[in-house]
């Protein structure tokens, strides 16, 4: 299993708690998802 998926879910939970870091975490998780999708294909 890819270790980035659990991290992505963890950051998703954090985004809902802290709105001040939501923008940074959202862009970070987005880049992580892009890299994860590129690694699959």
What would you say this structure looks like, in words?
The two termini are 15 Å apart. The chain has one domain (4-40). The protein is an all-alpha fold. It has helices at residues 4-17, 22-40. It is built from 2 helices and no strands. The chain is elongated and about 35 Å long. The model has no long low-confidence stretch (mean pLDDT 74). Helix 1 runs antiparallel to helix 2.
The gist of it:
The chain is an all-alpha fold and 41 residues long. The protein has helices spanning 4-17, 22-40.
Strand-pairing-aware structural class: mainly alpha
Distance between the termini: 15 Å
Q: What composes the largest sheet?
A: none
Number of helices: 2
Give the CA-based shape: elongated
The overall strand count is 0
Note the beta-strand portion: under 5%
Name the poorly predicted regions.
none
The averaged pLDDT comes out at: 74
**Can you give the helix content as a percent range?**
over 70%
Total of domains = 1
Rounded to the nearest angstrom, the radius of gyration is 11 Å
Give the ordered list of helices and strands.
HH
């Amino acid at each position: 299993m890819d270790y980035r998926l659990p991290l992505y879910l963890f950051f998703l939970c954090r985004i809902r708690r802290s709105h001040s870091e939501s923008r940074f975490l959202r862009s970070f998780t987005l880049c992580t998802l892009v890299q994860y999708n590129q690694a699959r294909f």
